[in-house]
Amino acid sequence: MATSNPAKPHYPQQRWQIHPPQPEVAQALAKHTGLSPVIAQVMLNRGITTAEQASFFLDPDAAPLTDPLVDFPDLQASVDILVKAIADGEKIAICGDYDAVWHDQHGALNAGVEISGRKR
């Protein structure tokens, strides 16, 4: 039987993925954005390679919104089911995992259902 040694901590087998520095590219991005080269390198590490992408990342309200029906192909079917359930007076259960994002999503779904006049 294996026993754990409290003096020796257990670390997960995950490893950081370190992107190779791109000083020339970071410097160019920094020049076009007014950011420091270090922040520009962080942006590059996140896949942000243009001044426009950096601007949208730093100011998401300025970014053009995409069509959610394109981004989420099953969204229309989900909306149709929810609208029918509300119209038919069916009970609606809202479920999700319990993380920080869930609280926002759960609150938005609850508000939408309650605005429709239905109780969950």
Give the key terms.
single chain, 120 residues, mainly alpha, 2 domains
In short:
The protein is an all-alpha fold and 120 residues long.
Helices and strands in order:
Layout: H1 23-33, H2 37-45, H3 51-58, H4 68-71, H5 75-87, H6 100-115
Q: How far apart, in Å, are the first and last alpha carbons?
A: 49 Å
Question: What radius of gyration results from the CA coordinates?
Answer: 23 Å
Number of separate helices = 6
- Unreliable parts: none
Counting helices, strands and paired strands, the structural category is mainly alpha
**Largest sheet report:** none
Instruction: Provide the β-strand percentage band.
Output: under 5%
Please estimate the helix content.
Answer: 40-55%
- The tally of domains stands at 2
* pLDDT averaged over residues: 83
Count of beta strands? 0
* Helix and strand element order: HHHHHH
Identify the overall geometry.
Answer: flat
Give a written overview of the molecule.
- The protein is mainly α and 120 residues long.
- Helices cover 51% and strands 0% of the residues.
- It is built from 6 helices and no strands.
- Helix 1 packs across helix 2.
- The model has no long low-confidence stretch (mean pLDDT 83).
